[in-house]
Amino acid sequence: MLELQYELESKAAKWYATIDIANAFFSIPLAAECRAQFTFTWKGVQYTWNRLPQGWKHSPTICHGLIQIALEKGEAPEYLQYIDDIIVWGNTAGEVFEKGEKIIQILLKAGFAIKRSKVKGPAQEIQFLGVKWQDGGRQIPTEVIN
């Protein structure tokens, strides 16, 4: 994650926007032939996951990879991604808005859901992965320090 921070810092951006994919793991179906591996019993009843489960050690890697493939295939503008969290940046609010909208449209077309209330920006100050970004620099939010 530190590499992402260094990469974003190198952009010296003035404006940012973040996009969070709604229920990203659960939006990824498991192949029918794999579902038997995701069967469990609870209180005497057998259940089978048919979507990528949270808590499975490979879920974050699979989720990240599928989102990345969708964005690359859709020719997304420059972005940084950590699993289902995405940040875009630029020198103007308009530029950042356009980049964010393009990424959202690519993700929607790929079958992912976006909760618009969780899309933040364009803003000159934004929080991404617990770090506050402003004027191309990062800092730990005060509420985290206290």
TrEMBL record:
The kind of enzyme this is, by top-level EC class, is hydrolase
Q: What is its EC number?
A: 3.1.26.4
Question: What sequence ranges are listed for the domain Reverse transcriptase?
Answer: 1-133
Q: Name one GO molecular function term.
A: RNA-DNA hybrid ribonuclease activity
SUPFAM superfamilies, per the entry? DNA/RNA polymerases (SSF56672)
Q: Which PANTHER family match?
A: PEPTIDASE A2 DOMAIN-CONTAINING PROTEIN-RELATED (PTHR33064:SF29), POL PROTEIN (PTHR33064)
By sequence similarity, the record places it as follows: Belongs to the beta type-B retroviral polymerase family. HERV class-II K(HML-2) pol subfamily.
What is the protein name stated in its UniProt record? ribonuclease H
Phylogenetic lineage: Eukaryota, Metazoa, Chordata, Craniata, Vertebrata
